[in-house]
Amino acid sequence: MKDKQTVLKVDNLSISFTQYVKGLKTRNITPIKSLSIAIEAGEVLALVGASGSGKSLLAHAVLGILPGNATCGGTITYCGQPLTESSKARLRGKEISFIPQSVNYLDPLMRVADQVKIGLPRDNADSIQKDLFSRYGLKEKDGRLYPFELSGGMLRRVLFATSVRSGIKLVIADEPTPGIHPEALSAILNQLRKFADEGVAVMLITHDIVSALTISDKVTVLKNGSTVETTLAENFTDNGKKLQHPYTRSLWNALPQNSFFNYKGVSDWL
Ligand SMILES: Nc1ncnc2c1ncn2[C@@H]1O[C@H](COP(=O)(O)OP(=O)(O)OP(=O)(O)O)[C@@H](O)[C@H]1O
Ligand SMILES: [Mg+2]
What we know:
Elements (H helix, E strand, L loop, with lengths): L5 E17 L2 E16 L3 E6 L5 H9 L6 E9 L2 E2 L2 H7 L4 E4 L12 H6 L7 H11 L16 H12 L6 E5 L7 H16 L3 E5 L3 H5 L4 E6 L2 E7 L13 H8 L17
Parallel strand pairs: 3-8, 3-9, 6-7, 7-8
Antiparallel strand pairs: 1-2, 1-4, 4-5, 9-10
The structure holds adenosine-5'-triphosphate (ATP) and magnesium ion.
């Protein structure tokens, strides 16, 4: 059997920020200490962890969109090659597709249909955009609106539509589903699974582990800027006895549909 290709490999990533505290006095903070993940072609990796554990920063480091005062350590490889800042810029939006956590990434001054058309083949951008709108429950007339005229859930669906492109090898979806009604939620999850089934590597960052498990192959758990555990999605079952790390077991058991067991340190995750 042919070996699966590792599309993204992050080893021992650290991220520090230099901040001014008083006048010209600076200090360093290191919210990301040691993150390691790997995603193969055809695989959905769910990335979970408490708020502030470093999920978005990891995504931003891979995409090369960290703020200027950030310094990274560790290595990031894409299809076996080290990712440099210039290769990140070249691949972004072409081979690496990003669904950001914040809808503020949309241009407030551009009609949303036009934003979805960016990067689509010019000849059939119109019809692809209309198809994407209907797939994610948006009406044709919504396309003529500006972001401030749409609800939060609609904006999420517009953002998602901007990521569906041919030729992509890696999709990074940072919380693509909060505030979305169940039908659009399953359309988005199904699309992420479809990407993977077509050979794309998918990173799904989420707080909704129950939904994520329906489409994920593996789950990586982060805590305070470090990787706690990477495990198969199927190990999230029963009372979590197949999960290695007590923190992962606690996250799982803290869910309302499980024992609702409250473990110190996981309450902000839910
Ligand atoms: N530009 C920045 N300067 C300094 N610290 C930052 C910066 N951006 C993020 N951080 C810190 O890094 C940590 C990780 O942030 P990150 O946004 O990656 O969390 P997250 O896991 O995505 O959280 P959430 O689930 O709430 O989206 C947080 O403690 C945050 O305060
Ligand atoms: Mg985040």
